[in-house]
Specification:
Mean pLDDT: 85
Number of domains: 2
Distance between the termini: 15 Å
Helix content: 25-40%
Radius of gyration: 17 Å
CATH topology of the largest domain: S-adenosylmethionine decarboxylase
Low-confidence stretches: 1-23
CATH architecture of the largest domain: 4-Layer Sandwich
CATH superfamily of the largest domain: S-adenosylmethionine decarboxylase
Strand content: 35-45%
């Protein structure tokens, strides 16, 4: 699945079957994991400001992408002046999930890194279910 997804990304990027990834050793570069950066715009500000909603979102996201939490959810609300919002971090057994809520402009930024494959579009759907908005998903293999 990883190789097929990587080939698809290469075809989209340069319309060829040739990977554009850097070689780190002689031979073909093999990514260790995947980072999905999910940006939501036009979110419901009340849902972004709700700590209870965030506490529901993270376990729902973990379940949807087939991961397991490692330890408890860490959350803090902070900012400067009018730019205040929630940030959260959840370690998962295969790495981590972070999120940052921007209540002022109705945006949410979720980053999922895992060495186990997962469906980034499904992750974005779960985020939209909890916060509203329109997603942009960027996937990086590293």
């Amino acid at each position: 699945m990883f190789i097929a997804m990587e080939r698809h990304l290469c075809e989209m990027a340069n319309h060829s079957d040739t990977p554009t990834l850097t070689l780190v050793k002689p031979g073909r570069y093999v990514p260790w994991g995947m980072l999905a950066a999910i940006d939501l715009h036009g979110c419901d500000e009340e849902r972004l400001a709700s700590s209870d909603n965030i506490r529901r979102f993270v376990p729902a996201l973990i379940a949807a992408i087939g991961m397991r939490a490692h330890g408890g959810l860490m959350m803090d609300r902070f900012g400067d002046g009018g730019l205040e919002g929630w940030s959260a971090l959840q370690f998962i057994e295969t790495s981590s999930i972070t999120m940052h809520a921007d209540e002022v402009f109705g945006r949410l930024f979720v980053d999922i890194f895992s060495c186990r494959p997962f469906d980034p579009d499904l992750a974005a759907e779960v985020a939209v279910e909890h916060f509203g908005g329109s997603p942009t998903v960027t996937v990086i293999r590293r």
